[in-house]
Amino acid sequence: MSGMRKHALTIAFGSIFLLALAGQSIAGLQLFNDEQAAHGAQAVGYLDFVTSSHFILDVAENWQSEYLQFFLFIGATIWLVQQGSPESKKPGEEGIGTDEEQLVFEHARAASPAWAKVRGWRNVLLSNSLLLVMGVIFLLSWLAQSLAGVTVYNHDQLQHGQETLTWLEYIASAEFWNRTLQNWQSEFLAVGSMIALSIYLRQRGSPESKPVGAPHGEGAVSG
User: Above pLDDT 70, what percent of the chain?
Assistant: First the structure.
C-alpha cells in the first residue's frame, strides 16, 4: 500500500483545511477592505491582512473552541459512558484501564513505543500525551484570541472616541465571552449530538458508527 493511501484521511483533511483557510483569508480581506472603504480608510494588502489582529482573532477563535471540544471529550470519555454509543466505552469499563489492557511495562509489545516499556515520568507523559497536547493547543489558541481580540476591540473603541480596555479587563468583558461562548455552545452541541445520535443511527463503512445490524443498546466496542 502506498504511503499516500496509508495516510489518505490525514492528507484529505489537511488539504481541505488549507483550502478553507485560504478561502477564509480571501473572503475576509474583501470584507475588511469593504469596511475600510465605508469608513473612508485605506485598503490593505493580503499579507497585511493575514498578519493582522482581525484575521488572527477570527482564526484563533475557532481553533480554541475546537481543541477545547477535543480536550473535554477525550478527558470525559475516560470516566463517563453512554450505553449504545460507539463514541463511548461500555458501562463498567470506566477508568484508565489496566497495564495489560494498555500494553505498558511488561505487557508492552516489541513494536510498542519505547516509553510504553519503562516506568516513571516518560510513561506518564506518553500515557497522557494526547490530552496534554489538545489542552496546550487550546490554551495557546485562547491566548492568541484574547490578545488579538483586545487589539481589535481597542481599535474600534478609539475610532468611536471611547475608552480602551486592558487585557485583563477585556477577558472579563461581555464582548469577549459573547464571542467565546457562541463558539463553545455549538461545539458542545455537536459532540453531544454525535454521541446520542450514534446510538440509533448508522453509517455503513464508517468506524465512527457501529455495524448496521448492531442492537441500539450495544456500542461499537462491545464483544
Answer: 98
Dist CA 35 CA 119 (whole Å): 58
Distance (Å, whole) CA 26 – CA 18: 12
Distance from C-alpha of 147 to C-alpha of 56, rounded to nearest angstrom: 9
d(CA 31, CA 200): 42
**Rounded alpha-carbon distances, angstroms, from residue 99 to 127, 128, 183:** 11, 14, 38
Q: How many CB atoms lie within 10 A of CB 61?
A: 20
Q: Are 144 and 60 in contact (CB under 8 A)?
A: yes
Q: What is the sign of the dihedral through the CA atoms of 22, 25, 26 and 28?
A: positive
Angular region, 123: left φ>0, alpha ψ -120 to 50, beta rest: alpha
Biggest alpha carbon–alpha carbon distance for the chain: 70
pTM of this prediction?
A: 0.89
